[in-house]
Amino acid sequence: MAKDYQPIFILPENTQRTTGKNAQRNNILAAKLVSDIVRTTLGPKGMDKMIVDSLGDVIITNDGVTILREMTIEHPAAKMLVEIAKTQEAEVGDGTTTAVILAGELLKNSEPLLDQNVHPTVIAKGYKIAAEKAIQILENIAKPLSESDIDTLMKIAVTAITGKEAEASKKVLSGLLVNAVLNVMSKENGRIIIDKNDIKIEKSVGGSVMDSELIEGIVLDKEKSHPTMPTHVKNAKIVLIDSALEIKNTEIDAKIQITDPEKMQAFLDMEEKMIKGMVDKIFASGANVVLCQKGIDDLAQHLLAKKGIYACRRVKKGDMEKLSKATGAKIITELKDLSANDLGHAGVVEEMPAKNEEFMTYIKDCKNAKAVTLLIKGSSEHITAEIQRAMEDAIGDLITALKSGKIVAGAGSCEIEVAKQLREFSESLSGREQLAVKAFADSLEIIPRTLAENAGLDPIDIIIALKSSHDKKQIWAGVDVHSGKVMDAWTEGIIEPLRVKTQAISSAAEVATMILRIDDVIAGSNNNPMQNPQMPQGMPEY
Q1: 130-158 per-position pLDDT tens digit
Q2: Is residue 162 one of the residues assigned to a domain?
Q3: Does 87 participate in catalysis according to the annotation?
Q4: Closest CA relative to residue 507, chosen from 13, 22, 81
Q5: Is residue 450 among the annotated active site residues?
Q6: Which of 40, 87, 97, 162 is catalytic?
Q7: What is the pLDDT of residue 288?
Q8: In terms of CB atoms within 10 Å, which of 45, 174, 293, 525 comes out highest?
């Protein structure tokens, strides 16, 4: 007689569980949807996205990481693609859209293999092999870059800006970008050192993008702290103070009891004397500009103004560090230690009008400035914000190219070449991994295919023409999105850092294999974002 077994529940009542192929399909679909969202933004003919948040703030951009960061994405697998975009941005500063599109395509091309009962771990192993080989192929075809090759650096900057809001002024902006990066670059034991934080990007609404300028110094979003202070100071001797020019409050609760009115006046006189002593110490050092990280007492402002000293208060800590690098000033905590040796120097410090009756402080004409400011101008907030994002991408590309010293051509040329060599390599494999390596090679073609689609070209014709050119050993044959033909991307000056490509391939392969290895999803809520991910409106279906 059969026994009746009591069902055993090991998970809470509201838990939802998806297993096996259903879990894989859901995760792959979610990742593909994220890929589709940013896919139309790729390339010189890419479109923009308008993102409106819950407060009604609007962002118009075609920057992949900005789009994904600003969207509220719930599905965990989809969030993993957002993470690789953030990593790509942090590591190399550009190529976020490429990384996400490639990850989505790797997952899409894994589905036919899963349908053929190829085990996910076999696909994951094949993708790992293919990614390592792809990076090796890219290393072999890459060309060296010297920091003295200004022409190539300009081409890298132009390539990064093309397709964004700043494209119309790409030649002017590229010159500013290259000069900015070379200004802050230093060498230590033959190794190039560049900190992108030393390039401050400041926006100013008004005027044209062509009016943007590189300032060898720092622009502060601050005005002078007292109206009678000078507006323009030549041959500025600058003191940077990270403590308050005020009477310090006691760190513990203290009570001062005064019974005699004369003592009250003496107390106030003592405070005034202390503040006057601070100002006298600054004046004695020879300083004529004071930039303070904290507050400046009203009396101190008045006394500084009387001595013809220009002062700004509440300067950000990051700006103080940049000012130190730009002017050579030492940041002072204790005024009693201040001497003329601690001062920095700038050709001019002046207050200039900005938007909405606000003012900005320009510290410029600094000799050997190791921190600079790119002042971006544009006709609206949205335009200047998008130009800033384009400039940040270009700075990331230039720094990455200089540090790695290797570059490749863009326009989908290196992806087609790597795909071609990967297919040849796959023939040397005997196991089922061969199928995964071929799927990886097919996935790389999504980049030139998307470039063609976004330009309104026939992707099939373009891919066939590209493959034909690469079979004839034209390794830099890429898509000309303007003419719809094949061009030599290197000759046309479409240059990208090698590391942008290798990082994108590495990140995409890692996230694709991680998602493929998930066969069980356990979610502890009825509002489960992993159930039936919805296709955003207007997105193409696979």
Answers
A1: 888 888 888 888 888 888 888 888 888 88
A2: no
A3: no
A4: 81
A5: no
A6: 97
A7: 85
A8: 174
Task: Identify whether 72 is a catalytic site residue.
Answer: no
Residue finishing a domain among 367, 394, 429: 367
**Does residue 310 lie in a domain region?**
yes
Computed over every residue of the chain, the mean pLDDT equals: 81
Catalytic residue among 66, 87, 96, 327: 96
Residues 361 and 426 both lie in one domain: no
Residues 419 and 321 in one domain: no
Quote the domain boundaries for residue 61: 16-144+408-521
Question: pLDDT for 293-317, tens place per residue?
Answer: 888 888 888 888 888 888 888 888 8
A 10 A CB-CB count for 427 gives 10
**Would you say residue 163 lies in a domain?**
no
Does residue 137 share a domain with residue 50?
yes
Same domain, 111 and 227: no
How many domains does one find in the chain? Answer: 2
Instruction: Report helix, strand and coil shares of the chain as percent, to nearest 5.
Output: 50, 20, 35
Cβ contact 182:147 at 8 Å: yes
Are the beta carbons of 23 and 521 closer than 8 angstroms? Answer: yes
Q: Catalytic residue among 393, 450, 502, 513, which?
A: 393
Rounded to an integer, what distance in angstroms lies between the CA atom of residue 78 and that of residue 100? 10
Per-residue pLDDT tens over the stretch 483-520: 888 888 888 888 888 888 888 888 888 888 888 887 76
Looking from the CA of 413 toward its CB, the CA atoms found within 13 Å total 30
Residue 94 designated active-site: no
pTM of the model: 0.78
